[in-house]
Design brief:
The complex is a heteroheptamer.
Chain A lengths: L2 H26 L3 H26 L3 H34 L9
Helix pairs in contact in A: 1-2, 2-3
Chain C lengths: L1 E4 L2 H18 L4 H27 L2 E11 L2 E7 L1 H28 L4 H20 L3 H19 L5 H32 L10 H4 L3 H18 L8 H4 L5 H10 L1 H25 L2 H20 L4 H22 L2 H32 L10 H4 L1 H15 L5 H15 L3 H27 L33 H4 L4 H24 L17 H5 L23 H19 L6 H10 L7
Parallel strand pairs in C: 1-2
Antiparallel strand pairs in C: 2-3
Chain E lengths: L1 H27 L3 H26 L4 H25 L5
Classes of the chains: A mainly alpha, B mainly alpha, C mainly alpha, D mainly alpha, E mainly alpha, F mainly alpha, G mainly alpha.
Chain lengths: ~100, ~500, ~600, ~180, ~90, ~160, ~120
Amino acid sequence: MTPVEWAIVGLALLGAFFGGVAAIGIVRMPDIYTRAHAASKSDTLGAVLTIGAAALALESGLSIIKAVFLVVFMFITNPTAAHAIARAADDQGIEPWTTEDDS
Amino acid sequence: MIEHLPVLLVVVPIIGGAVPLVASLYTDRAGWPIAVLTMAGHATLVGLLAEQVWSDGVVSYAVGGFALPYGIELVVDGLSLSVVALISAISLGVLAYARHAGPHENTFYSQFLLLVTGLTGMTVTGDVFNLYVFLEITGLAAYGLVASGRAASAAVAALKYLIIGTVGASLYLLGVGYALAATGTLNMADMSAKLATVGYDSTLVLTAFGLMVGGLTVKVALFPLHTWQPDAYANSPDSVSAFISALVSTVSAYALARLLFSVFTVNFLTAVPAARWALIAVASVSIVAGSALAVAQSNVQRMLAYSSVSQFGLVIVGFTIATPIAVVGATVHLVGHAVMKGGLFAASGIIERETGADTVGGYAGMGSRTPIAAGAFTVLALGMVGVPPAIGFVGKWYILVGAVEAEIWPVVAVVLLSTLLTLAYFARLGERLYFAEPTIREEAAVADGGESVSTGMLAVVVIAAILAVALTAAVPAVEQLLNETLPLLIQ
Amino acid sequence: MTDVASLRPLLAVLVSALAIPVILSLKSRPNVREGVTLTVAGAKLAIVASMVPNVLSGTVYVTRIADFGSGLALVLRADALGILFGLLASLLWVVTSFYSIGYMRGLSEHAQTRYFASFAASVASAMGVAFGANLLTLFVFYELLTVSTYPLVTHDESDEARAAGRKYLTYTFGGGVAVLGGTLLVYFLTGTTAFTPGGIEALATADPTLAKAAFALLAAGFGVKAALMPAHSWLPDAMVAPTPVSGLLHAVAVVKSGVFGIARVVLDVFGTDLMAELGVALPLAAVAAFTLIAASVIALRQDNLKRRLAYSTISQLSYIVLGLALLKGNALVGGLLHIPAHAFMKLTLFFCAGAIHVETHTDDISDMAGIGRRMPLTMAAFAVAAAGMAGIPLVAGFVSKWYLVIGALEGGQAIFAAALLVSGVLNIAYFWPIVYQAYFETAEDHDEKPLVSAVFGGREAVVADGGAGSDGPRDTTASGEGAEVSAAGEADLTNDGDRHETSAESDEQDSVPRPEQVDHLGMRHEDVEHHSGPPEGGWENRGWLGQESTWFMLGPILTAATLSLALGIVPRLAVFLRIVETVVGGLPGVMG
Amino acid sequence: MSLTLLQGALLVFVLCCAVGAALLKDTLAAVIAFAAYSLGISIIWLVLQAPDVGLTEAAVGAGIMTILFILALANTVTPETDRLFEPIRWRTVLFVGAFVVALGATVPSLPAIGDPTAPVAGGEITQYYLEHAYKETQVKNAVTAVLAAYRGFDTLGEAVVVFSAGVVALSVLRREVFA
Amino acid sequence: MVEFSTALLAIAAAFVLFGVVALYRVFVGPTIHDRVIAVNVAGTNTVIAIALVAAAFDESTFLDVALVYALLNFLLSIAFSKFNVEHGGVL
Amino acid sequence: MSADEEPGLYVESTIIMTTVRVVAPFVLTFALFIMFHGADTPGGGFQGGVIAGSVVMMLAFAYGIDSTRQWLDVRVVAALASGGVLVFAGIGLGAIALGGNFLQYNEYLPYYAKASKYGIELVELGIGGIVAAVAIGLFFLLAAGFGHVVGEGER
Amino acid sequence: MTVDVLQLDLLTSRYNYYAVVLLLGIGLYMLIESPNLVKKVIGMNIFQTGIFLFFITLAYRTGANPPVVTKGGGPYVSPLPHVLILTAIVVGVSLTAVALALIVRIYSEYGTLDEDTLEELYYD
């Protein structure tokens, strides 16, 4: 492998580290908000790093553009999704636990 | 133009089916005229096609003009022509019936035409995967039609039908996968040749056979995979039960035959007797069990549905015996059963509308209250029992002759027995209709059902009854048609 | 023999078939309806009769209806044997039509339109049976006959009628299935089902076991309708039908179609030679002989007139079967001739029973003492026919029985000849008392006439159809196959409640519900005060000039009686013997 | 080897999701498990070099299908339960097990994964498509070429299926027009 | 090059395995929100894995799939969140 | 139901609305890209149609289903669905009219050089229309639930 | 010993097919056993996905590229099963949508999605 490739793999490994942290956080954190925290922060970071690595690995211009889009997109949507979930939980968490599990 | 008939046959109802949805933005009664127009076109095309098949024997059409095993092929031979003609005729009949009987919604007619699309497609296609696609179109439209009943139970019946039907279709698809794994092709003719070189005793081929045939038997509703059928037939509106009972299982049975002859071929059946015996056994059990269950029913439409289970057992037996005469018999019975069963459902619908009777007990004495419908019902029932010269007899007779020729004595016994069993449940009805005191008071009936019946509906039922007898005269023609086809199918 | 393509056989079938819708459409105009019936009956007779001369000279009319390929076809073919049955049926339809009009109107029966339509359908099917040129065609019309007579049997719409109808359907369709099976076997063995005088050749070289099986199936299948024991029990039950129907069932169409089927099988499918070779004739003859005697004995114990006649029919049909099974020229002639002979005589008897029923509502023989004064002509005809039944010379029965006995002796089968004679004696035993008490006794001084009136017979024996109880002839039928027993049992179950009810109500119960017990009482019924048996003060005296009833009924009775006399006195002039001789003469190696 | 590792991991993921969907008592939880299931399946398609199918699975499995499930659940209420998992019915397991074993017995006769000589992967028809697709249709993506041209009739059927689904849903829910 | 793609695939496999770990939360809950969060993480991991697979196979088109996934993952999350808020009524 | 009865019970999150507003046009473009570019890259009418449909869903989730329902023209949905089918069938029949077989794109060659390719693209577009319309339609249908009242009364 | 090796070989060369069979089994189990109709529909989908996996595995060829015929040759996987499965997926979605529509209707008519309860109501 060339040094560039080593760098890419390293970047991806770093992303994998954050992904792993997110996964562990999901499992080990005590309640929904902390889990959402782990998911949105750590995982997004892992995603950005790894996708960046992948973009570097793919040489063509179009791929880079796509990858950039992907990163931007993840950057916008992931926290929003976490926010939406947390907000929904908050809506129900503050009010008495009435409709919590009725599905 | 003339050479495009097979594909036009499928495309015309597609176009017809797409229109009502737009039309419903403007009027909610556009469906019927559109459907009638479309089916008139369809019938014309069938007529032209018949002429062509009559002169050429087999009409093959390569969609897209691609070289053949690579593109999709449509094939119309005598066997498929009979079924296509049946589809066209019955659809027109059901339209005449539904004009008054409803449902009147545009969506109903859209689904109706889509069902015709699916059925026609299944019939003319010469490609195993294409068959799956049209099988699913048929299924979807049929589920929707069953659910178009107003009763709450219609939805339950439709969902049950959907789930079991999907399992059947999926098994078929898996079977296609196995066949593809063995041969790498999907064209029926090509696959048939390649299956022979792969070897009929290969596990892949056997599994493909089991899964494809098994999947289709679900759609045909052979025992014990029939459970969707009584619910579906009994809970859907009359027009729908007449339509579905006449065509859906029929075309599936046709597809099964097509699979047996055009894909696996008779050579396979002789090379693997176990497969043949298994199919015969399933069908025979179906004959007996279906009749026995029919005897146990109190609801007339459920009884008719179980009767279908039994009759399709008979058809499949005929196809599996696979001697020319048995195949002719099975085809005749396939067509005849469709006419008779559709007519029976339509007649039972009229009887229910006029008198409110829908159980065997309720039919008592209704013969005089609805003379025409009850008369037609009786004629059709007798035809179903196999009283000559009705078409039901001819089919049974040919199948029997085939079974005797092939010296499959258990089948002979089962078929003869089934005649008596069929008699057992239809004689009960006939006797009640004419020779018993009514249990439903007239005023109560009017207050309860009291839906009107149009001349068109009665005409449909009467024509079905007449056809049930008159079709016998057409048997020699069918036989001649098939005689051109069968040598190709049954070497 | 020359085959001539002609539409006449088809026309003979169609003419009454086409009348069905017409009759149905004339529901509101009974006079026109009956007019149509009569016209069509006449037309049919004319068509059939027009074929007779040429058939006698060896011509055969053939109509091919449809070809199914592979040697299967629907073909009508008026050969001598067919003409025998066809002529009989069409002749008697005319007679019966007149009688039906009298009977149905006399009782103001319900559903007359259905009745006449079904009647026309039955006759059309019977004609098809007669002219069927192969087993398939025969079977087709055979089944149609079953279907079209079913409404006639259940005409009363009472529980009992329905039970009888069910039984009838079960038995005859069961038989039909057996016929179908046999037909298939024959087709399988020979590749054809066409009737060939002297038998289908290929059958002779076929596997004997299968051939025997085919014969057994066919004989059993047709035997059901021919009411051979042990499959006879539907016939007495079917007596609930109106009397003209009984006449039709017993004398003309239904049972005769069964017998005719056996004749076809024996003569034209297997052929006498092959029958002898296979050794299947003897069992058939044995069954026939047994039925012959047993049915006569049972008839002795019947008090209901129509039931007694029914058992008489069972017995007489076996004469025909026996004649066929003996395979000898004279026996064949006798057997075949007995078809029309029995038809005329039995029709007379039934018509008489019907006339008595319509006029006096009397059904039981024990109530008929002195009735000769009330209905002199009717009872005279009855006496003539009864004499014929017993084989007394100058009446039709004598001629046929003569041939039969001769044939039996020729074949060295004296035991069958003896059986025939014994049965003749029994015939006298069960008919004579009726005639005697009608004329020479009065209601006051008559005694119970059934010769055997002990527990196993007489009035209580209404379950003589092999049902529950030890009093019926169960012991004679116990060897019957399971299906038969269970079917009978089922019919009995449905009957049961009904029967107990009636027997609790009145002591003059009978197995047959009289029409007045049904809910459609006509005018005539109101002014006849007594329901059964002689009125107070004995039968009134009516003259010999027809005051006893309407000529619609008397005419047919007398015609039928005359016909039986004609056949007895001048058998050759009465064409039937000539036809029979043509049939038998056409068989290779039989005559002489 | 790592490809096999990836595939193994994916299959484990997918099977876990399937088992979870089968056993979770709560319907919404089962739907969520099913959503996760289609995530895994989609990568499998990509790994097997079927980007078209992967894209479809992504759009369908994670998108419209799950949303339809959610909508259906939003219109229905299932009673609450304390149980996390459903009890396993061993009779059915036995029956299904028989089916699985029977079908599993046919697996050895199937061509090995990736076998270039297998009738499908290396067969004549496949070769024809790969060689002629561009010439005959001017379309580079052979999948699209086969989809729209060689098997265009199938695709017409597919379009009709989708259309039917819409019409049938209209009829089932007793509505006259969409929206 | 082979080793490079192997490494990328291995990392992709690792992400998938993280997804398997997240499944634990999908199964045991305890609330629906936990499940949605977990499936969201699994979805993100999927996107990442797809990107890595794309890199490993050098197929830029696979990124389209990743893009679709990212989008739908988002859609799914807000759908689930809305479901919980308005559950019982129509979304 | 609840949205009708109690509007404003749940205020849409500004964050979600903003995100959707930013993302939606991009996604729609992407959907069209996939639809049109199916000839040379993976993708095609079906995938593009689904994604286009999901844009509407996204809007519906963010801005409320009922308001989206009103914003969307029913006629467009119906016309897209039926029109897609008709376009597809029409292209096939057009080939017949020009003397070829059904769906034989080559027949259009005299009129356009890359006939096959653009024929296929058009077909993909038709499929995309159907799929998008049906996806949207199904979404609203399922959201609205069962229509008890339509039809002539219960049996 | 050889048998063992053979088995292992089967597993490594055909693992996808075994997964297919397991998925089919799980789907079938859900179809038969799940009391809730929605879960039955999920089971139906899993069942179908199993079949899809079967087809796509058939199309696969080691070291091959996706069938986009632009890159410099190289083996491609077979496009045919992909096409079939694209169609089949669409069919599956359509069926699911219809099934869900039916479920919504059943719920508003009967007020339950539990199969056993439904059965009782249905046969009343």
